[in-house]
């Protein structure tokens, strides 16, 4: 069993659509299976299934429970009180905190004893940058505008991944004013860390406690069963 005091982040590569049949979908619950079925493209289905099976595998290692027995719920949203705040493990009070993000070929999972948020973001196009940039904190806008023209989208992606990770950790998501927080550095009570992944992609983690080293993993726990092993991020 891993120490509950160690924040860990897994950066994994999802399998190709052709490998969907190698994944054990039986561990997913009814809600996950419904969302899986609603996805039209095989590539999206493979990524979704892998991400949620991987999350269950990581949490099973932390809790000692079989991955198919884990039941998920949501905390109340800090903004409105509705049940769409941070994800939680039902029937396991005091269980590990966790966060999941997947985009493109990457799946990122964060687990800690304290609230945690992770996010993976591709670099946006210039039109998206122009639309979203005015909504950010003045310090964030200044950071992007000060970058060289060819680096602006990369700087923006880094800041956006940090902001999304922080908002996931809070449990508010995008319900919180995007200009309320300056994520160019750490925030009170929160440490924000950029994690290297792939070119033109930003990955960030936000953890609610003083700065500590985030343990990074590029393969699932030894002995984890998903079907045929998939390739780690190189």
List the helices and strands and how they pair.
Blueprint: E1 8-13, H1 30-38, H2 42-63, E2 72-74, E3 87-89, E4 97-103, E5 106-112, E6 116-122, H3 126-132, H4 138-146, H5 152-170, E7 191-195, E8 201-207, E9 215-217
Parallel strand pairs: 1-9
Antiparallel strand pairs: 1-5, 2-3, 4-5, 6-8, 7-8
Structure, explained:
28% of the residues lie in helices and 21% in strands. With 234 residues, the chain is an alpha+beta fold. Strand 4 (97-103) and strand 5 form a beta hairpin. The model is unreliable at 228-234 (pLDDT under 50).
Strand order of the largest sheet: 4-5-1-9
Quote the beta fraction: 15-25%
Elements, N to C (H/E): EHHEEEEEHHHEEE
Helical content stands at 25-40%
Radius of gyration: 18 Å
Return the average pLDDT rounded to an integer.
90
How many β-strand runs?
Answer: 9
User: What is the CA–CA distance across the termini?
Assistant: 26 Å
Number of structurally distinct domains: 1
Q: Decide which structural class fits the backbone.
A: alpha+beta
> Superfamily at the CATH H level?
4'-phosphopantetheinyl transferase domain
Q: Biggest sheet, in brief?
A: 4 strands, mixed
What's the helix count? 5
Shape label: globular
Low-confidence stretches: 228-234
CATH class: Alpha Beta
CATH fold field value: Ribosomal Protein L22, Chain A
Going by CATH, the architecture would be Alpha-Beta Complex
């Amino acid at each position: 069993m891993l120490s509950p005091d160690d924040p860990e982040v897994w950066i994994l590569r999802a399998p190709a659509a052709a490998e969907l049949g190698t994944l054990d979908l039986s561990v997913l619950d009814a809600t996950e299976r419904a969302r899986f079925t609603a996805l039209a493209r095989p590539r999206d289905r493979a990524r979704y299934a892998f991400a949620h099976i991987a999350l269950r595998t990581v949490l099973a290692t932390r809790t000692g429970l079989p991955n198919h027995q884990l039941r998920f719920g949501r905390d109340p949203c800090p903004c409105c009180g509705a049940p769409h705040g941070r994800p939680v493990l039902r029937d396991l009070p005091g269980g590990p905190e966790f966060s999941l993000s997947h985009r493109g070929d990457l799946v990122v999972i964060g687990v800690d004893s304290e609230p945690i948020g992770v996010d993976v973001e591709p670099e946006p196009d210039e039109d998206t940058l122009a639309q979203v940039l005015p909504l950010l904190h003045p310090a964030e806008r200044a950071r992007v505008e000060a970058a060289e023209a060819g680096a602006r989208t990369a700087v923006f992606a880094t800041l956006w991944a940090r902001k999304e990770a922080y908002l996931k950790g809070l449990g508010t998501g995008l319900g919180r004013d995007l200009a309320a927080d300056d994520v160019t550095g750490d925030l009170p009570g929160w440490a924000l860390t950029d994690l290297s992944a792939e070119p033109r992609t930003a990955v960030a983690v936000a953890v609610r406690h003083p700065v500590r080293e985030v343990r990074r993993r590029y393969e699932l726990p030894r002995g984890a069963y998903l079907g045929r092993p998939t390739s780690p991020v190189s």
